[in-house]
Amino acid sequence: MESSIYSVVAFYGLALTILGAATLVVFVRNIVHSVLFLAVTFVAMAGLFLLLDADFIAAVQVLVYAGAVCIMVVFGIMLIQRADMKATNLFNKQLLAGGGLVALVVALCAVLAGRTAWTELVTAQEVPANTVQFIGTLLLSKYVIPFEVAALLLLVALVGAIVIARDEEVKANARD
Amino acid sequence: MLENLFVGIADWLRSLLGGLGTPGEINEAIVMLAKLVAILVFILVNALWLVYMERKVAAYMQARIGPNRVGPKGLLQTTADIGKLISKEIVIPKKADVVVFLLAPVLIFVPTLMVFAVIPFGKNMAAIDMNIGVFYLLAIASLSTLFFWMGGWASNSKYSLIGSMRVVAQMVSYELPLVLGLLGVVMIVGSLKMSDIIAAQEHTWFIFTQPIAFLIYFIAAVAETNRTPFDLVEGESEIIAGPYTEYGGMAFAMFFLAEYANIMVICAMATIMFLGGWHAPFGLDFIPSWVWFFLKMYILIFIVMQFRWTYPRIRVDQLMGFGWKVLVPLALANIFITGIGMKIYQAIGW
């Protein structure tokens, strides 16, 4: 990341957008608005990746998170439609457990951030202009096992979804 | 002279700004802005022209004349229509989610406009020639589903909700064969850059080496833009106008114009990926490259319009079945065969 005034302004603008939108995802009481703010968060995060010259990852972020994950939530909302959407994303009483979990995550992030040698990362060699080929080669050589495991996991999830859906269908046919 | 008309204008602007003595960074930013504004104006004017073209094509197919009163040959008809739509009130339903309801028709144009930034309209005529051009286009285009859904959901009406459910289901289902269809071409070229893909088609267009991919892409793309025979989303006889039911005036027109801009995107994409982009066929390169690009694009747009007036609408179950049981397996088979074919060619040393 270059440290010109433009990138600094862009970074802080994006960071503010991400934090603001992510806070609103939690605090807004209508779950539909939560999804829309979630999409804003994802797109702003793609902007952060662009600042780091990782254009491929930025596009993946938009395609997978803003374009697909949000749509999955949308499906959920439409399948469980309620008459009143105004109070669908409320607070519960699990303050202690939630607070503990958040504290753990923050602590973990702090430890990891403290251990990372930031100055070395910044002065490392320049980002290659074309990252797609490198990512592809790495995925199918060094990281081929995790890659295949992820593929298998997705396949299992897909088959599981079909089994659950078919079960309903068989029951519905039996009732008729 | 004509060949470099638009590139020449950009160079002239750059040298003009260079003479003013402003910093180079700002000059480049201004030139980029000028390019993007030019594309913006072009898209909006062209969307108007496409509405007129659609009405004329429909009219001739039904043995009518079509719009012929406003302006020469009725050319100003859509301009007059837009004037009327702008002057109309935008009615907001009582129980609508007002902010989301009003944001949807504004945002619906954003992905479409962003996509045009990477499309090369002619030799050296892409505003930005991105490394991941094709992938960028697909990623940004996938966002428009969310905006259609926003409009339909926020209207708080039965027809709109059913329409927006159909939008989401249809666009998600057909995005897969669309991407898989393009993958065959990307495999052969080995690059996602638009200029590389066009350069690879200098001698043979990919429609000849990847005919199945072209068909899969084109069918899926027509479904992505919600055009007949895949226009269940706005099936007038069932759900009035789907997600746009509650919209009136210019808010409705924005959805309408976005549809035509999207048709332009998919046809431009088909031209780039399968029809050789701006390359001239049969060595007829005394005609400027951008003329060839637009010629190919408009022929494809004409075919899309012809679909609308010659095919009946299909049912929802047929739509899903066709997408998942025909197009996706066919696209996967195409990728498999392309991979084997490439390996064989490499083995025999072509």
UniProtKB/TrEMBL annotation, chain A:
Look up the domain of life of the source: Bacteria
The record's keywords, sorted A to Z, are: Cell membrane, Membrane, NAD, Quinone, Transmembrane, Transmembrane helix
Regarding protein family, the annotation reads: Belongs to the complex I subunit 6 family.
Which reaction equation describes what this protein catalyses? Answer: a quinone + NADH + 5 H(+)(in) = a quinol + NAD(+) + 4 H(+)(out)
Which protein, by its recorded name, is this?
A: NADH-quinone oxidoreductase subunit J
What is the membrane topology listed in the Swiss-Prot or TrEMBL record? Multi-pass membrane protein
Any single GO CC term annotated in Swiss-Prot or TrEMBL for this entry: plasma membrane
**Transferase is among the record's keywords:** no
TrEMBL record, chain B:
Main location per the UniProt record = membrane
Q: Which family does it belong to?
A: Belongs to the complex I subunit 1 family.
- Which top EC class is given? translocase
Q: Transmembrane region positions?
A: 29-52, 98-121, 133-151, 172-192, 204-223, 260-280, 286-305, 326-348
Q: Classify the protein's membrane topology as the record does.
A: Multi-pass membrane protein
Q: What is this protein called?
A: NADH-quinone oxidoreductase subunit H
Organism of origin: Desulfoscipio geothermicus DSM 3669
Recorded catalytic reaction(s): these are: a quinone + NADH + 5 H(+)(in) = a quinol + NAD(+) + 4 H(+)(out)
The free-text function statement in the UniProt record for this protein reads: NDH-1 shuttles electrons from NADH, via FMN and iron-sulfur (Fe-S) centers, to quinones in the respiratory chain. The immediate electron acceptor for the enzyme in this species is believed to be ubiquinone. Couples the redox reaction to proton translocation (for every two electrons transferred, four hydrogen ions are translocated across the cytoplasmic membrane), and thus conserves the redox energy in a proton gradient. This subunit may bind ubiquinone.
InterPro entries registered for this protein in UniProt:
NADH_UbQ_OxRdtase_su1/FPO (IPR001694), NADH_UbQ_OxRdtase_su1_CS (IPR018086)
State a single Gene Ontology molecular function.
NADH dehydrogenase activity
EC annotation?
7.1.1.-
PROSITE patterns the UniProt entry points to: COMPLEX1_ND1_2
Task: Give the gene that encodes this protein.
Answer: nuoH
The alphabetized UniProt keywords are: Cell membrane, Membrane, NAD, Quinone, Translocase, Transmembrane, Transmembrane helix, Ubiquinone
Is-annotated flag, keyword rRNA-binding? no
> Is Transmembrane one of the keywords UniProt gives this record?
yes
Record GO cellular component, one term: plasma membrane
Compartment list: Cell membrane; Membrane
How this chain assembles, per its entry, is:
NDH-1 is composed of 14 different subunits. Subunits NuoA, H, J, K, L, M, N constitute the membrane sector of the complex.
Offer one example of a GO biological process linked to this entry: aerobic respiration
Name the HAMAP family for this protein.
Answer: NDH1_NuoH
